[in-house]
Design goal:
Elements (H helix, E strand, L loop, with lengths): L3 E6 L7 H10 L3 H4 L6 H7 L3 H4 L4 E7 L3 H10 L4 E2 L12 E4 L7 H10 L4 E4 L6 H12 L4 E4 L9 H5 L7 E9 L2 H16 L3 E6 L5 E8 L3 E8 L8 E6 L3 E5 L3 H18 L6 H19 L5 E2 L7
Parallel strand pairs: 1-2, 1-4, 2-3, 4-5, 5-6, 7-10
Antiparallel strand pairs: 7-11, 8-9, 8-13, 9-10, 11-12
Length: about 325
């Protein structure tokens, strides 16, 4: 079978996914990648053995970025053969599209041409940050559009033992997770770290923080109290997970960014080849309600917002 042809579309400040994700499919030019404006990317790519770097069965064949100069550099660094002048130019030339931007309020319009063309989509986290856009994606998925979105933290290998079982901890009473940067763009990293462990059943959110210091208390139907912190400059504590139960506790820190990204992208390729979702869209929908509830609570002075308020109808 011929490898699937993937288009990488979009690049915004603070997000270098077009470089790293494309390299995980195509390999990369070390000299050019060394000039990547996100030094962490060439650093973690260089740690991977050559035989483990690439995702099999697909390649990134086309790229477009908001600034054309970025596209030319990413293409050279990540060995992408085609740079296009408009995102829509990839229609008819690729098998799927990845929207590699993390501003949720832009995603409906970035995705619309490809949904209408029937192309499968992977949308970088968060899928949305507002109720009306969640309603639009819900309609598209309901009507059969093959859309997938997730944080790479869903695939964090350090958390995997607790996705399998938390029985040894007893009954969970308290969970916490931390991230740097904004709630709107990085809160989903924290939320999707804990969601596969706790499962669905989040009831309410209360954000008692500020725009740059989000401190969000969630209530879960089965697992008690959950604290999620997203603070702009807290770079030293991204991905610190704490699970406290009636019999034991554990603290785990995310370490292997490459593994999480590659596993996420492999899940998308599996979805393309089989049509089987790696997790139901209802999970993405609940996570987006959590993001929106955190924003609404903060904007309304710390009011407790029940997730059922976020209807997405």
């Amino acid at each position: 079978m011929q490898p699937l042809r993937i288009a990488v579309l979009g690049m915004v400040e603070g997000n270098g996914h077009p470089y790293s994700w494309s390299a995980m499919f195509n390999n990369y030019d070390k000299q050019t990648m060394a000039e990547c404006p996100y030094p962490a990317i060439p650093n973690y790519l260089a740690k991977e053995p050559a035989e483990k770097l690439q995702i099999q069965g697909a390649s990134v064949t086309h790229i477009w970025t908001d600034d054309p100069r970025d596209a030319a550099h990413v293409a050279k660094a990540s060995l992408i053969p085609h740079v296009v002048s408009r995102p829509e130019d990839v229609i008819g030339h690729v098998d799927a599209v990845m929207i590699t931007t993390d501003k949720g309020h832009e995603h409906v319009e970035r995705c619309r041409p490809f949904v209408e063309a029937g192309l499968p989509l992977f949308v970088d986290k968060p899928l949305v940050d507002n109720e009306s856009d969640l309603a639009q994606f819900r309609r598209w998925v309901r009507d059969g559009a093959p859309i997938m979105s997730s944080s790479c933290m869903r695939y964090c290998k350090e958390y995997m033992p607790y996705r399998t079982s938390i029985h040894s901890l007893g009954e969970l009473r308290y969970t916490s997770i931390t991230t740097c940067k904004s709630w709107e763009r990085y809160g989903i990293h924290a939320l999707e770290s804990i969601y596969p462990i706790l499962g669905p059943g989040f009831i309410s959110a209360q954000n008692v923080g500020t725009q740059d210091r989000n401190i969000v208390h969630f209530k879960h139907r089965l697992h008690g109290d959950v604290m999620v912190l997203a603070m702009d400059d807290m770079y030293g504590s991204h991905g610190i997970l704490q699970l406290c139960g009636t019999q034991a506790n554990v603290t785990v820190t995310a370490q292997d960014t490459f593994y999480s990204f590659k596993s996420q992208l492999e899940a998308f390729i599996h979805f393309l080849k089989t049509g089987e979702r790696p997790f139901p869209f209802s999970e993405t929908e609940e996570l987006m309600r959590m993001i929106i509830a955190g924003i609404r609570s903060r904007d309304e002075g710390g009011r407790v917002v029940r997730l059922e308020e976020i209807t997405a109808n």
